[in-house]
Design brief:
heterodimer; A: mainly alpha; MetI-like fold; B: mainly alpha; 0% strand; cell membrane (chain B); transmembrane helix (chain B); transport (chain B); Bact_Polyamine_Transport (chain B)
């Protein structure tokens, strides 16, 4: 507003100088590479392994029509959606508690909530092998109690992939819901109660709707991070639990079929990117940035 | 209401237990004297940590991770702090778009970022190398640094700088003696964040790392292929201690710095 008045007189170069290293990096290391794989996805990998430059629709045809890819895509979206819903339901409880508890617990609980962010994803994922594995905590407890005589195979199925994802994503959800709940004016729920609402009604009619931005931000983060992973299915899933990013990893790292890998990753980007754009259109991307404050 | 509150409290305890119990088990098992490092525990022993130090591959992975993390933190924080300064201190056209561009690397799924960067740099004849790994980590950590530093910078009031200027300091002096010291906690927070994210990253690293080079997370991943060994738990414990103790230490240091500055300015 005031800036446009002064801007009319002189163009201020300072912010652009400060921004240039970061913006050049984003351009060179993200924007141009992404545009490059768009081009690349139309190239062809020949039988000898070299790429044929040109405009071939083969990769896209394969990716878009082969039911193998459809099934895994559907499976990926399903796993990510289930994990996100579980995170929202399970994560709401501690978020609510942290937001409304007396300050003594609050700082400690918030600090603890940040800790998982500092613990490597691979360690958090593999830690479940110690719990659910054949010689893990659950099996050895059950055997010591004499309930079972042979260890149960609990790992390497879709349920453990979802478990691993929920464990990885939960802090993101709790933090976002908490930020939203913390910003709600307390007198609103009190007013609802003084007008005759029960505690549950006040929550359902006032607090819950007002916390939707946080829930939505948390859900977006959880879904996008969950749908884009290949580590969790590799560590905690079986051969039939591959997710879409596993296909990308297979194509690029194992088969070295880079044009196909480009097409696959662009499809993933298009799907998840659309979601991010729809979200930011309605709620603004700023909501996510709030949890850094 | 109080019954509901009790239920909420209980639920919170259970969720926190769910978040921390597996990590606690990793740390517990890493001290296991048992040959296979599994339950039941047969007493405590540091043998698996000694095995770590004697394992050349793990020591090398650790060195790679530390060097990579430090370089990432230096580059990413420098760029991030400059960008955050521009975002907090100036109004300019297209600010919303720029803001989105700065956090774009975390809006794009990391696998896609990994593929795009790998293939583009290969096209430019840059093979998988430490350089590619570093560039990947820099671009991936940049948004986190920008967000963290921006959040801290908002709190620094401009009046301090204006006061310094009105007392005769030039722009450079003002930056060096007023702005920079005030920004130091933000800079430290940003670099710690960048270091830890780089140190913990696996998704992009598996795509970018040259053959034969491992970081600690990819080393753990490679070891998991065989079976879960007690050595993995010990390595996990070292990593947890490293990445959790470091931020806590940093926070304490930042508080001391801030306290020192407050008393020094009187």
């Amino acid at each position: 507003m005031t800036a446009s008045a002064s801007e009319a007189q002189t163009f201020d170069r300072r912010p652009w100088l400060l921004l240039s290293p970061a913006l050049v990096s984003v351009l060179l290391l993200l924007v141009i590479p992404t545009l490059f794989i768009v081009v690349y996805s139309f190239w062809l990998r020949t039988a000898v392994g070299a790429e044929q430059v040109g405009f071939f629709l083969d990769n896209w045809e394969e990716v878009l029509t082969d039911s193998f890819y459809h099934d895994i895509l559907f499976q990926t979206l399903r796993i990510a959606a289930i994990s996100t819903i579980i995170c929202a339901v399970v994560g709401y409880i501690p978020a609510y508690f942290i937001a409304y508890t007396p300050t003594r617990h609050k700082t400690l609980l918030l600090l603890l909530l940040m800790l998982p962010f500092w613990v490597s994803y691979i360690i958090r994922t593999m830690s479940w092998i110690n719990i659910l594995g054949v010689s893990g905590a659950v099996n050895s407890t059950l055997m010591a109690l004499g309930i079972i005589t042979e260890p149960i195979q609990m790992l390497y199925n879709e349920a453990t992939v979802i478990l691993g994802l929920v464990h990885f994503l939960l802090p993101f959800m709790i933090l976002n819901i908490y930020v939203s709940l913390d910003g709600i004016d307390r007198s609103l729920a009190d007013a609802a109660r003084s007008l005759g609402c029960t505690g549950w009604q006040a929550f359902r009619e006032v607090t819950l709707p007002l916390s939707v931005p946080g829930l939505a931000a948390g859900a977006l983060l959880c879904f996008v991070l969950g749908a884009g992973t290949y580590i969790t299915p590799m560590v905690l899933g079986g051969p039939r639990n591959a997710m879409f990013a596993n296909l990308v990893y297979e194509a690029i790292v194992t088969q070295l079929n880079w044009p196909l890998g480009s097409a696959l990753s662009l499809l993933l980007l298009a799907l998840l990117g659309t979601l991010v754009m729809v979200y930011s259109r309605f709620l603004g991307i700023d909501q996510i940035a709030k949890s850094f404050r | 209401m109080s019954l509901a509150w009790t239920a909420i409290r209980l639920g919170t305890v259970l969720v926190y237990l769910f978040m921390f119990a597996p990590i606690a088990v990793v740390m517990l098992l890493s001290f296991n004297a048992n040959q296979f490092g599994s339950f039941p525990m047969e007493g405590l022993s540091p043998r698996w940590f000694i095995a770590l130090i004697e394992n050349d591959a793990i020591v090398r992975a650790f060195q790679t991770s530390v060097v990579l993390g430090l370089l990432t933190a230096i580059i990413s924080t420098t760029m991030g702090v400059l960008a955050a300064l521009a975002m907090v201190r100036y109004d300019f056209p297209g600010k919303r778009l720029i803001s989105t561009a700065l956090i774009a690397p975390i809006l794009v799924p990391e696998v896609v970022l990994a593929v795009a960067l790998l293939l583009f740099l290969r096209f430019l004849d840059v093979p998988r190398s430490f350089f590619l790994l570093l560039m990947g980590h820099v671009i991936f950590t940049l948004p986190f640094v920008v967000l963290v530093v921006q959040a801290r910078l908002v709190g620094i009031r401009r009046e301090y700088e204006e006061a310094a200027m009105s007392l005769g300091a030039n722009a450079f002096e003002t930056f060096r003696r007023v702005t920079l010291p005030l920004m130091l906690p933000a800079v430290m927070a940003g670099s710690l964040f960048a270091f830890t994210i780089s140190f913990d990253d696996i998704t992009g690293t598996l795509f970018w790392k040259p053959g034969g080079v491992e970081t600690v997370p990819t080393q753990i991943f490679a070891m998991l292929r065989n079976s879960i060994s007690p050595e993995i738990n010990a390595l996990g414990t070292v990593m947890v201690v490293f990445t959790v103790a470091l931020p806590l230490l940093g926070a304490a240091l930042a508080r001391r710095l801030a306290a020192g500055m407050a008393s020094g300015s009187r």
